[in-house]
Give the backbone structure.
Amino acid sequence: MGISSLARSIADSPTLRLNEEARQLRERGEPVLHLGIGEPGNPAPPAAIRGATARLARGDVKYAPTDGLPSLKQAIVRYTEANYGRRVSPANVIVSAGAKQALYNLLFAILDPQDEVVLLAPHWVSYPEMVRMVRGVPVVVAPPPGGFLPRLEDIERAVTPATRAIIVNSPNNPSGAVYPAELIESLVRLAERRGLYLVADDIYHRLVFDGREAAPAWRFATGEPDGSRIVVINGVSKLYGMTGFRIGWAVASRELVGVMSNVQSQTTTCCSPVMQAGAEAALDGDQDVIEDLRRTMQENRDVMLAELALLPGVRTVKPGGTFYCLPDFSAYRRDSIELSRFLLEQALVVTVPGREFGMEGHLRLSYTGSAAEIREAIARIRWALDPCTPAEIRVGSKTRVRDWT
Ligand code: PLP
């Protein structure tokens, strides 16, 4: 009662419900293993903690400029030049409360009601909800069966006169897919041809494995940032272990940044200057932390793949980056939400249902934990699903017996 129909329609995430169930199980002392987490345990860089603490200690805690502290914006300009080889001006940058708020501000700034945004499944859960929250229409393009790379012709077919933007997230949450450079280039050309925004959500762009690199959309852009409809979204959450700092940014034409800044000024005013100081110190500090994380996640991916290979009927496309994979469990003939709940209740392992990402039949598994945790979690899943494994398994201090076949 008294709730708008739009707000009511915003998805109540099964993941959050499953996480809550997992929390309650943990509280009761159950040894729950979490493959649902979207953040590794790497600590925030000491420099970031020092940067934030120093600002707090100075009492320098008043409102900051809406679009970000000038010194952080300069650090983002340097990051952009170092990582993308792209010269931008501070006027092309806006700092927001995470990449998430940057995306929301952007969608608010570019969409009128009923405008369409093309999303490429598997896609991050928040994209369709955010598009709908600003009264736009998400149009989801599914990949061909057995893979996670969309076909250009399917994307072209999805573009209509109402399309305003395409969101690309490579490396991809939830699949770990890294889009080939040719696909990114084709998307840039398509966006240019049709006058669309190409939104590159680059939050995982340095977490790429096997000596490869993610191809940035900017590599293929013609013209200057101010004339361009490429928008790059990034932040410190994932690469620097700073999810709780809530600092992200968008780099776009100064006209668009100006409008996004107006939107932000009327909602959050600005991001915490304390956390901005921390983000600035991270960007200017030791960058080896990213390589350390990348290497660990690559090792974890290999452990995860080796364990999943032992699960009969499960097919996994090798992730090229991030800390997620999206194995196909459709051989088990259960709806993904039901399967996730089953694995939580029986095996005490948290997974994320593929339906949330537009990929029913799949489960998203994170490999952010230790190798031992990954091995044990997949062994428990194997025990829960494969009747050829012994009926008894040791979970924590208790023995569980499989009795649901
Ligand atoms: N984009 C993608 C694809 C993500 O997976 C996430 C977090 O899970 C975000 C954006 C949000 O990042 P932030 O913590 O900077 O808001």
In short: DSSP finds 13 helices and 14 strands in the chain. The pocket of pyridoxal-5'-phosphate is lined by residues 38, 98-100, 124, 169, 173, 201, 203, 235, 237, 243, 248 (CB under 6 Å). The first strand starts at residue 33 and ends at 34.
